[in-house]
Structure formats: C-alpha cells, structure tokens
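Annex B. Sample input.
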Amino acid sequence: MGPISRWAVSSLVSSAFGLLSRRLAGRYSRVEERRGRVPRLGGPVVWLHGVSVGEVQAASPVVSALRHMGFAGSLALSSITETGLRVASSVPGVDLVVAYPWDRVGFVRRFLDGLDPRVYVVMETELWPVMIWEARRRGVRLVLANGRVSDRSYRRMRALGWLYRDLLGCFDSVFPRTGLDRERFLELGVPEGVLGPVGDVKVDAVLSRRGTEDLSGYAFRGDLFVAGSTHPGEDREVLVAYRMARGVVGGLKLALVPRHPERASECLELCSREGLRAVRFSGDPGLAGLAGGVDVVVVDRVGVLFGLYGLARVAFVGGSLVPKGGQNPLEPACWSVPVLFGPHMEDFAEVRDRMVRGGCGFPVASGEDMGAKLIQILTSGCKIDPCGLLDGLSGASRRVADRVLSLLDEGCR
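Annex B, continued. Sample output.
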C-alpha cells in the first residue's frame, strides 16, 4: 500500500472524527486525553491497549509478566470505554491509565509526542489505521497480542485485504490466540516469521484472577445458577430455564448479569412479570437475600461476574443464544463450573469445541433446552476438571512479555 493510499485513508478517518468530535465529546469522559493530551512518563515506555473490559483484563497478566521479568520502565494502559478505563485503574503495575485517542492525525501525533512509547502492544485485533501508521513511522515497535480474527472480522478483512495487509504488515510480532486465528493471519498476509506461538492470554488472566478473588464477603452458599453477560432476548430464556429447574431443585437461586449494567431495571421488570422476587446486587452485595425469600439477584455493577462464577453450580455465558459471538467460557470453567452456551459462540469457537469434547461445556438452543440441561447437571452432581482444558493454552502472557523485552533490548529497559 503506497503513501498516497495511506494518506487517503488517514484523511478519510481523520475527517470522520473531525465531524463527530463534538458529538463524541458529549458522550465520553476524559475528552482532552482522547484529543491526545497526555502526561509524559519517565524512562522507556511500554504502552498496552485494550478496547474494553475483557481486553484490559487480558492485558493484566502481560503487565504482571513484564514486571516479574525485570522491566523497570513505565507502563501505560489505555482503553476506549468507560468501563474499560475503570478496570484499567485497578491493574497493578501500571503507571498511567489513559483514554485512547480518537484516530485523527492531529490527536494521534499529539498523543505520541506526549507518551513517547518505545513499544505498543495491541490486545486482540484493535487496528486503528492512523495510529498504527504514525507509530510505525516514528519507529515504535508494534506487537499484536491475543490476535483474534472472528468469522465476521475475517470476511471484512478479506474484503479490504489491501488495507489489512498493510496494517498487519506494520507489526513486529503477532501472537494468535488459536490455531484457526493463526491460519487466518497467514491468509491475510502475515509472514510466518512474524507469527508467535499460539496461546490465549485470557487463560492467564482468569487463572490469575481466580487465585486472588476473595469470595468471603458472600453470605449465600447454596445452589446458584449464574447467567453472565446476557443480551436482550436471552434474559427471558434464562428465566424459562430457571423456573423449570427450580421446580426440581427447590432451593435454586439465580444471578442474572446483563452485559450492560444499565439494563438492570429492564431485567428486574421482567423478573417481576414472571412472578419472581428480584433485587439489585447494589442493594444486597453480600447476597444475603438469596438465603431468604429472594429468587433472583440482578447485577447492576461491573467487575463482580467473575467472583459470582466462583459461587455457581452451573453457569450460562451470554451473547450466545443471540448472534453476538458469545463470551469467554473459560471464566466459569476455571472454577470447575459446568458451562452452558447457545449456538452463537463464533468468537470462542475453538475453546467451545474443546469444552464440548472434554465434557466441560454444553450447547443449548433455547430456554427449554437450557432448563433440561440445567436439571440434568444439578441432579447428577456434575463437576468438571478444567486442567485438561487449560493445558496448552496458558503461558501466552509470558511469551508476549518476553518478546516486548527483546524489542527493548537495543536500549535500556
């Protein structure tokens, strides 16, 4: 891709952000950071970026690995969403949490002038062209960690092959999440020598979080069904399954966790219409009500789902009964919790297949189907052993950190 084509794409993207700038400023916080104004850090700077909560959580074990492997410079962590920025603020070892700049030439140049990173680590496949080209032009070394190419992204990337071949060609290293992702990166033109070993950084993230998660504040220790990261259209199906299972397992309770906490009121209203007594998690964070007459707790906070999976007898991962690509089934599986999911697990297809083959995951097609499988698991006392599932998937964060340090070796760490 020639300089004229890059200039044309950069101009188009910059113009779009210029037109949207006022509207975006009304929707987002930290507007000055998004316009590129960031403080300068001391020493060599490694900058990691995760678009939202899941990607920021995936960046956490890379940060930890860098510190444990002796990196004494500055670490910056950026995100786009408000929830991602809140989670980033709690990641140990980070010197600066900053909002990702809007992809306009002036904002990007100002951001890079201020931050002056030596290495830029992109989590998953968050490719903003103006930033990638400008960083490369300045000699910043680029690493793509946990590289993921979903079915939907693959179709788009192939259709715009001229663009994505150029963007991916800017990276010094690309670490694919799965074997399928590796094949797709090769087909998109990433050279074999640029591709690192396959591995899922999110496995390291969930194992690390499991080791530090404190469940002592929860009063309820009975039978709990956790439906995590649900989308519109799934909540009703979850309630169908819950009512079916409760008819067999009388003390069963439900934690309903919508993907977007602002949907909590909608979920509470749905529970009421179904004749279920439901409360907000924010009003009962210890879950004491579940030990009494409360049937359902609707979670209206970010950051608590992972711990709730640790209390569950069975879990359902949302975004899978509706076409949203699914959510990470390893989060409940690492707690030895059997996992239900719908047919739309495209973003986690390889992990889904491993879980089904290993008896850790169970596909369902509807609320009735979910209810039947829930009853079967609860009445059989099913528990899973995640060790075989996680074999070969862990250790990716250390491999990414090792590559970052090798890129820094030309100068002082």
